[in-house]
Amino acid sequence: MDTLDPQTPSYTLPPEVVAYRDLARQIVRNELMPLEPEYLASPHHTYGLTPVTNLRSVFPAETVDRLVKLSRDTGLWWMGASGTDGGMGLSMLAQIVLDEEFNYCAVPFPAPEIPNILSEGTEAQRKKYLAPTINGDMIVSFAQTEPGAGSDPGGMMTTRAIRKNGRWVINGTKMWISGAHESDVILLQAVTDNEKRQRGGITMFLVDRKAPGVTIEERGIPTWLGPRAGQYIVHFDNVVVDGDCVLGPVGEGFRLGQRWLTIHDRLMRGPYSLGKMQRALDMSIAWAKQRVTFGKPIAERQAIQWRLVDMYVDLQALRSMTYEMASRADQGEDVRAEAALVKMCASEWGTRCIDHAIQIHGAMGESLELPLTYFYRLLRHTQIGGGTTEIQKILIARKLLKD
Ligand SMILES: Cc1cc2nc3c(=O)[nH]c(=O)nc-3n(C[C@H](O)[C@H](O)[C@H](O)COP(=O)(O)OP(=O)(O)OC[C@H]3O[C@@H](n4cnc5c(N)ncnc54)[C@H](O)[C@@H]3O)c2cc1C
User: Fold this and answer.
1) Could you tell which of 139, 140, 144, 151 is best to mutate to test the pocket of ligand 1, judged by most ligand atoms within 8 Å of the CB?
2) Whole-angstrom Cα distance, residue 33 to residue 16?
């Protein structure tokens, strides 16, 4: 099986989405896959940087410039932006289909990371923050987690913003902030009403990373996700921002954060896993057919066949689920609990699928020349980052019991 064979049910996809999917497959095959060995061997890539900065830290400028040009020339650069914001205006389903293709390879395809909640800003904010983010001239990081507030940010957040003469004074510390060191602006959640907290007492601020009082601990937090740290501790020490740095209504910052997480960290975890799972399955089938032990290819052993089947079942089930939830989101349905379901299954099933692939490959499965351990680390991380598996279960249970 190969990713260039039609895996996805084309009949459910509009023709223009199929055309984009095929284009993405070609780009992955012709442009990204040849770069993968160098990417995997590099001591410079990391988790948390945007695709462009990640590529620039590994490859020479001409390689990255070529990929950026390709992305812009094909229009794929704008795949994450809405039509009203000057983007491709793709449906959620179309974005998911494209994202799955690009996740087949470890090398990221250059396109901007666009926090969808920026489109809830005022006209002036959209001009100042959203337009340059889409164009690739501005990078935005998201700061919710704190040393004592992870799974329960609403209840445990201590970062405060106090209004003084029409301006806000912010104090507190955020932790685990991906890409904070390279971002221009930090989307920051702070408590503005200690009584109300997540029910109207948390506000979202757009804070200039270089504003006086903002300090990013230089070393970052080393993790197993990449050779270099991508997460940072950020201190806010009497940082003063104007009223026009509030995104959305005062007190509505928790809801905005949840909106951002629902799409970026939950629904989009579906394709993030799917591409890697499909690659792992393709690799495992090819390997099992050619690896011979005791006089036969290991593909002829039932123990190996069952691992392949388990991988295939997870992949097909996750794909169906992800496509369905994306279609429902496109129809305007509130899919917060469904996105939690996709995230939970994508991270849990994705991890076990790659684990099967590593086992089928034997020692080669542990080689850093193959993308398997890299994929494993990334997918294992998704059981924690953006809300743990346990928290997704809480969200799903809440919906079940409420209904
Ligand atoms: C690589 C990386 C990148 C990240 N990037 C960002 C970022 O850009 N911005 C940002 O704001 N944050 C970021 N985070 C933080 C991440 O979202 C949190 O780590 C995550 O939400 C979990 O919080 P915690 O680590 O404090 O775990 P804790 O809340 O301390 O939980 C510990 C364990 O207890 C479980 N648990 C907690 N409560 C319950 C309960 N009620 N019932 C059952 N089990 C429970 C959890 O599931 C977990 O297994 C990042 C983290 C990592 C590792």
Assistant:
1) 151
2) 24
Q: What pLDDT shows up at residue 2?
A: 42
In the block, residue with structure tokens 């993790």: 223
- Nearest atom in ligand 1 to the alpha carbon of residue 390 is 47
Question: Sign (positive/negative) of CA torsion 125, 130, 131, 132?
Answer: positive
pLDDT at 306 over 60: yes
pLDDT mean over 218-232: 92
Ligand 1 mutation target, pool 146, 176, 225, most atoms within 8 A of CB: 176
Supply φ then ψ for residue 170, to 5 degrees.
-110, 135
Give me ligand 1 centre to Cα 390, in Å: 10
pLDDT value, residue 264: 83
Instruction: Map out the domains of the chain with their CATH numbers.
Output: 10-111 (1.10.540), 140-252 (2.40.110.10), 268-402 (1.20.140.10)
Query: Is the CB of 232 within 6 Å of ligand 1?
Result: no
Residue 50 has pLDDT above 80, yes or no: yes
> Residue 103 and residue 113: Cα distance in Å, rounded?
15
Rg (CA), the chain: 22
CA distance linking residue 372 with residue 354, whole number of Å: 7
What's the predicted TM-score (pTM) here?
Answer: 0.96
Side chain identity at residue 137, one-letter code = D
| pLDDT tens per residue, range 55-89 | 999 999 999 999 999 999 999 999 999 998 889 89
